[in-house]
């Protein structure tokens, strides 16, 4: 029997607790199989003990094995159960004559002695760069756990060049070990038909025109600055409202306090159905995302893929994602944000031009590209 090369992808992080990481894992797992050579196999680990976990069983094929790993990424038990599983991966039903497996950890909470060549994905360094968002205990834990994960991994993938720069600046890592590979919008993010936009507008009681923001209210998202900028825009008797969607952290109430005097001008939608996001982006007059820091900034790309005009911050990874399709602003300059919003709202031609550029920019990113570049790293590791 010919030998085969297995690549073991840890999808245990594809749960409700990790919505962003979950998108990364799901899309990568779905895009990899068509790219595999005849002698390559993909093994996907998942956690059936988590009721919110993504079940990858639909991917099962002669080249894709699905293996249950009922242990949480947060549990100490993974330190011995996952390495044991990696050693016994042959029970996945794949061919039994193999070359040594390669393990792809999709989170820094991982087995720190995996026993096989390991690739680690690093998303961002928020805890290090914006310490006000986490407790001292959490910062120390992040620092220690990340160092352990980096030491356990032969290679590292970051989701942007900016994230790579941050990693190299804060941790002692050989630059040759770190490869930036960008993400992409899920294929379902595309301009939606009028009927779907109308359905979502009716569901959330939305007007025909609105400014949209999607994200949590943690400090690095800079939401108070956005609300303040919106308040500085002259409004007609029928203002275009600012809609704020996403999870809410009660520790940071400043944006709600700033929005209170504006009445219905600012609406907090809270978490919205994931299935409604393409239509919410497609129906928006403008998407604004003045974040101070992003590992990649996927909401910007998702909005662009739906044909939205975009204003975003000019820091961290956002210029990489937005290119020249968005209006980039200093996220700490409230007047600059307000001026950019007003400019786009008042110029229909500019807004249409930005929408067209958004679609072209989003098309530069694809999960096929992400998977191909990731597979190239797998193959480099396997050839050593």
What does this structure look like?
- This protein has 384 residues and is of the alpha/beta class.
- It folds into two domains: 5-184 and 366-383, Glycogen Phosphorylase B (Rossmann fold), CATH 3.40.50; 194-362, Glycogen Phosphorylase B (Rossmann fold, 3-Layer(aba) Sandwich), CATH 3.40.50.
- The protein is built from 14 helices and 13 strands.
- The strands form two sheets. Strands 3-2-1-4-5-6-7 form a seven-stranded parallel beta sheet, sandwiched between helices. A six-stranded parallel beta sheet has the order 10-9-8-11-12-13, with helices on both faces.
- β9, α8 (254-259) and β10 (266-270) form a beta-alpha-beta unit.
- It is globular and about 70 Å long.
- The two termini are 23 Å apart.
- The mean pLDDT is 94.
Question: Would you spell out the secondary-structure blueprint of this structure?
Answer:
Elements: E1 5-10, H1 19-31, E2 40-46, E3 64-68, H2 78-87, E4 102-105, E5 118-122, H3 126-129, H4 136-152, E6 155-158, H5 161-170, E7 178-180, H6 194-204, E8 211-214, H7 223-231, E9 242-245, H8 254-259, E10 266-270, H9 277-283, E11 286-289, H10 298-305, E12 310-313, H11 318-322, E13 327-329, H12 334-346, H13 348-362, H14 367-383
Parallel strand pairs: 1-2, 1-4, 2-3, 4-5, 5-6, 6-7, 8-9, 8-11, 9-10, 11-12, 12-13
Helix pairs in contact: 1-14, 6-9, 7-12, 10-13
Short description:
The chain has helices at 19-31, 78-87, 126-129, 136-152, 161-170, 194-204, 223-231, 254-259, 277-283, 298-305, 318-322, 334-346, 348-362, 367-383, and strands at 5-10, 40-46, 64-68, 102-105, 118-122, 155-158, 178-180, 211-214, 242-245, 266-270, 286-289, 310-313, 327-329.
């Amino acid at each position: 029997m010919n030998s085969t090369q297995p690549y073991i992808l840890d999808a245990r992080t594809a749960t409700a607790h990790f919505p962003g990481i979950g998108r990364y894992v799901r899309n990568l797992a779905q895009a990899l199989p068509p790219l595999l050579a005849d002698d390559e196999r993909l093994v996907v680990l998942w956690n059936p003990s988590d009721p919110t976990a993504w079940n990858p069983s639909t991917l099962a094929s002669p080249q894709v094995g699905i293996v249950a790993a009922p242990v949480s990424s947060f549990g100490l038990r993974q330190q011995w159960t996952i390495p044991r599983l990696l050693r016994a991966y042959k029970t996945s039903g794949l061919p039994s004559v193999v070359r040594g497996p390669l393990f792809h950890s999709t989170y820094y909470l991982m087995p720190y002695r995996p026993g096989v060549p390991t690739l680690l994905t690093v998303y961002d360094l928020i805890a290090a760069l914006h310490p006000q968002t986490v407790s001292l205990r959490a910062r120390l834990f992040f620092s220690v756990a990340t160092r352990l994960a980096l030491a356990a991994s032969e290679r590292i993938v970051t989701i942007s060049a900016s994230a790579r720069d941050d990693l190299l600046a804060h941790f002692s890592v050989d630059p040759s070990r770190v490869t930036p590979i960008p993400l992409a919008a899920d294929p379902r993010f595309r301009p939606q038909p009028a009927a779907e936009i109308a359905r979502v507008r009716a569901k959330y009681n939305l007007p025909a025109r609105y400014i949209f923001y999607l994200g949590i209210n943690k400090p690095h998202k800079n939401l108070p600055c956005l609300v303040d900028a919106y308040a500085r825009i002259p409004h007609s008797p029928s203002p275009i409202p600012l809609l704020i969607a996403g999870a809410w952290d009660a520790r940071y109430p400043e944006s709600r306090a700033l929005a209170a005097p504006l009445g219905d001008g600012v609406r907090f939608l809270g978490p919205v159905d994931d299935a409604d996001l393409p239509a919410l982006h497609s129906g928006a007059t403008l998407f604004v995302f003045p974040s101070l820091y992003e590992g990649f900034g996927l909401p910007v790309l998702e909005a662009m893929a739906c044909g939205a005009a975009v204003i975003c911050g000019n820091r961290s990874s956002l210029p990489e994602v937005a290119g020249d399709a968005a209006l980039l602003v200093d996220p700490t300059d409230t007047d600059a944000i307000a001026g950019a919003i007003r400019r786009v709202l008042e110029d229909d031609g500019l807004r249409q031009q930005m929408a067209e550029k958004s679609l072209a920019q989003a098309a530069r990113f694809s999960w096929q590209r992400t998977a191909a570049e990731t597979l190239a790293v797998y193959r480099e590791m396997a050839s050593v």
